[in-house]
Amino acid sequence: MSKNIAIAGVTGAVGQEFLEILEERNFPFNKIKMLASSRSAGKKITFKSKEYTVEEMTKDSFADVDIALFSAGGGRSKEFAPAAVAAGAVVVDNSSAFRMDPDVPLVVPEINADAIKDHKGIIANPNCSTIIAIVPVWPLHKANPVKRMIVSTYQAASGAGMAAMLELRQQAQQVLNGEEVTCDALKYQLAFNCYNHDSKTGPNGYNEEEMKMVHETRKIFNCPEIAISATCVRIPTLRAHCESINLEFESPITPEQVAELLITAPGVSIIDKREENRHPMPIDATGKDDVFVGRIRQDESIPDNRGINLWVAGDQIKKGAALNAVQIAEKLL
């Protein structure tokens, strides 16, 4: 059934990806509204061979809207999402604003699509690092419960938005030209460098990105007892995050059993060619729907073959953000 839809934050990296995916998947709609901040209002966007004018998002923007895809930042989601719901829209929100609200489903369709039906007007899209990690971990957890999960992330500039991607390009050119490096969108020089993820560090020493992975995974898995520890790092790639994932299971499991489970898992592709030392890379995942998995191997430090190591790569803007939200919207049709 066709719906009237709105894209909130349409001029940003994820907003633009929303449009590409809606066209790619031939998402059925009657009308579409392009919404952004006042500084972007009036810009022209061509979508499906038709030109649209970007409108300033206000609390009155959502009359006759059935589904609103939000990627405008947490503050603006808190300000405008309730107005959209009051106008009759269902909001799929890509920010962190509502993820841990007990009344808001936090959804990865490959894992807990059934939670969508419990929405009260808002459905939250998880953090990109969480999505990329748990799409391949979930089918393993279903088969053999995970007791402990240790994740180290290698996160692209795309996670900090379009401005960060453009600045990484600029920084690389500045370094190669022997010029002083500009840091505006990014806190530190990212070109030819890496650093602790640029989210706020809490009193426990973990940054917000790391704690998102802990709390969101527990909520989506409906498994508050799972032990999770994360270390999140920004690296100088444009888009597509990589993650090293160490899993401790309740019962023995072999790499062969893991591969067999993942071959048929939705949203997962395997690149694991040991003889060629060929495993997932950001360039494999960029622009792709699936999360790519490789380096499937036994963790020999955990007794009784209960430990497995994985290496994954997933497109942060696509499956880590826009695609996941559109998949949720498809379930609402």
Sequence stretches where pLDDT stays below 50 over 5 or more residues: none
Question: Could you estimate the helical fraction of the residues in percent?
Answer: 25-40%
Major pleated sheet? 7 strands, mixed
How many domains, as an integer?
2
Instruction: Give the amount of beta strand, in percent.
Output: 15-25%
CATH H level of the largest domain: which superfamily? Dihydrodipicolinate Reductase, domain 2
Order of helices and strands: EHEEEEEHEHEHEHEHEEHEHEEH
Shape: globular
Q: In CATH, what is the class of the largest domain?
A: Alpha Beta
Look at the structure and give the mean pLDDT: 96
CATH topology of the largest domain: the name is: Dihydrodipicolinate Reductase, domain 2
Radius of gyration: 20 Å
CATH architecture grouping of the largest domain:
2-Layer Sandwich
Neighbour order of strands in the largest sheet: 10-11-9-12-15-14-13
Instruction: Please tally the helical runs, counting DSSP H or I stretches of 4 or more residues.
Output: 9
Distance between the termini: 6 Å
Structural class: alpha/beta
Number of strands: 15
Explained architecture:
The chain is α/β, with parallel strands linked by helices and 333 residues long. It folds into two domains: 3-126 and 321-332, 3-Layer(aba) Sandwich (Rossmann fold), CATH 3.40.50; 130-316, Dihydrodipicolinate Reductase, domain 2 (2-Layer Sandwich), CATH 3.30.360. Helices cover 31% and strands 25% of the residues. The protein is built from nine helices and 15 strands. It has helices at 13-24, 74-86, 109-112, 128-143, 162-176, 208-221, 255-263, 282-285, 318-332, and strands at residues 3-8, 29-36, 44-47, 50-53, 55-56, 67-70, 90-93, 122-124, 146-155, 195-196, 227-234, 241-249, 268-270, 291-298, 307-314. A seven-stranded mixed beta sheet has the order 10-11-9-12-15-14-13. Strands 5-2-1-6-7-8 form a six-stranded parallel beta sheet, with helices on both faces. It has a two-stranded antiparallel ribbon with strand order 3-4. The longest helix is centred in the middle third of the chain and has 16 residues, at 128-143. The radius of gyration is 20 Å and the shape is globular. The mean pLDDT is 96.
